[in-house]
Amino acid sequence: xxxxxxxxxxxxxGLGAAGGVKAADPDAEVTVYTEYEDIAYSPCGIPxxxxxxxxxxxxxxxxxxxxxxxAGIDVHYxxxxxxxxxxxxxxxxxxxxxxxxDRLVLGTGFDYADPGVxxxxxxxxxxxxxxxxxxxxxxxxxxxxxxVVVDASPLGLEMVTALAHRGIExxxxxxxxxxxxxxxDPDIMAPVEESWREMGxxxxxxxxxxxFLGDGGHVRGVQTSxxxxxxxVVVVCTHKTPxxxxxxxxxxxxxTTGGIVVDERMATSADGVFAAGDCTEIPHGFTQVPLQGLxxxxxxxxxxxxGTNAGGxxxxxxSVYVPWGTPAGKWVIGGASFGETxxxxxxxxxxxxxxxxxxxxxxxPGVHKIKVKLLxxxxxxxxxxxxxxxxxxxxxxxxxxxxxxxxFGFTLHDLSTMENxxxxxxxxxxxxxxxxxxxxxxxxxxxxxx
Length: 450
Ligand SMILES: Cc1cc2nc3c(=O)[nH]c(=O)nc-3n(C[C@H](O)[C@H](O)[C@H](O)COP(=O)(O)OP(=O)(O)OC[C@H]3O[C@@H](n4cnc5c(N)ncnc54)[C@H](O)[C@@H]3O)c2cc1C
Description:
This protein is α/β, with parallel strands linked by helices.
């Protein structure tokens, strides 16, 4: 009898897991449950369709439904799993009843945090997630004159930029003093905020949401600590929280962040049950502090590991150093591990090495500034984090590289002497990371600490 793996979740984690099971055991029976009508689309592209950079939603689909049938993966669409029974090794799927499994993978993803204010049931509150809903919302945005975005989270940044591109009067309401205030540094975000102002965005920082206001059941604005702002649509971009409902009801171990606790095989506290993606928590490689709400690429990679192990193979997932990046306003921001804001909040001492460099040869058209900030451990000068802001290209690749540099313990000395590509259209003679590391070492030498 082939082994039966049930996967709850048709997002990056669930589909990564389905592929992982099949790679490890091509004969395995794989059943995927999703509450949605579709799988295999990129939710990450939705803000860019709203912003007009991508012409239609169809382009976000990566594979048709037939591709999964052909791969022997049985996807049950529009089907909620309502319960797990770990002792009996069953899930209860709406309209199907109890279904047994040999191995189970949970990829139940995230929910946006409840804003916890009156008016949450009004129409006109947009939680960006499901592609079918996004298609309907896109028609609403055609008629929208004024929008409020709640919270300058990573998605909030993308949606503010998208709505402004679209010519909608956009207000950003956020309780922190600057955008992405829980992870990014204010000097990294300052150019972004300036560019939003140039695009006509109204920024309301240090401003707490108090209520969604409505007329006849439809939102007409928000009440905040800084007064009332009218809006045709409110885009709610509160932080992501792990969707652990099934797991916690079934008694699986849940961590301090609310994510399902997994080991390096992505195995949960229950025998034969794995979990992956935004429903889990994963330790940060440097601090070992558990993190939840990582990215789609983390979810997919974790799904692959969970699926491979569920299929009888052997793969491990390591703690994370979190390279990140996104366009915001007219800039691209990014980093690895953490910046000054998080280091300070965690009480982690650091020395700084900074530089303003350029993305290409200074004479080549399209050259942009790139600001690089490196955080290193005092004494060893081992890199512990980095943040950047720049125009155009190169932030993503630097963030990926710097995450590896943190992981493998590179020091400012290593970075100041690293080799780099120089080609006028794609890279400057002086790589900004090298300049930052060198500046930092010079400053330390001047202060007698080098
Ligand atoms: C608008 C948007 C933009 C994004 N941008 C980026 C980006 O730029 N870069 C990036 O890396 N990531 C991005 N992401 C990805 C995102 O932030 C997550 O990290 C990623 O979606 C997590 O994948 P997941 O599979 O863990 O969960 P999800 O994508 O949340 O999928 C959860 C799945 O579980 C199913 N499910 C949940 N409960 C049940 C149940 N009880 N029964 C049946 N099915 C259930 C759902 O139907 C869904 O299929 C974006 C996401 C969105 C929505």
